[in-house]
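Please, why this fold?
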Amino acid sequence: MSIVDGPDPGARPNRQGRWRTGQESKRRILAAARASFAANGYQRATVRSIAADADVDPSMIHYFFGRKDQLFAATMTMADSPRDPIAELLAEGLDGLGARLVRRFLEVWDATERVEPLLITARSADGADTSAAMLREYIDQEFTAQLVAALDAPDAALRGDLVGAQLLGLALARYSIRQEPLASADHDTLVAWLGEIVQRLLTGPSPGGAAQ
């Protein structure tokens, strides 16, 4: 090929050049990994197949992320982490927090093209211990811990877990199972129904009758 002819349009890009575009490569890897874990489960998804989908060398995945379990953990933060939004909602106080949580939850998930990484474990037929452990850690660090600190009550940890279970159940029914009419219900309707339930879990009296 001569300089006059220019590059062959059918030639594959030089892989060596991809190493110099680190951020773009990482984005492609994360997108491919997220799709593969969601479709295949943790155990059946392989680094080699993810690399092929991302059009990179498998060694690049190890370079950026390490082991497969570390790549899995990275996919959990690919979508907007709940940490900042939760902090913003808590800054407005506990009054009405239930409704705000439900609405923010719906806005984020409805804007996501694929099922959130939190549902990867639920889609995995094998129920791998590694993915389950990372799922628990993600929920605790990014969501429950902030609620527990804000509630400052003896049963705050249980209340936080109950709120998380309520929202995760909503996610499974609306976005994974796509149960109707829940899957098609508008935000105002769901906030009206679920906001009070979540608020009750956050600030209502305990079943024994003792208020916070």
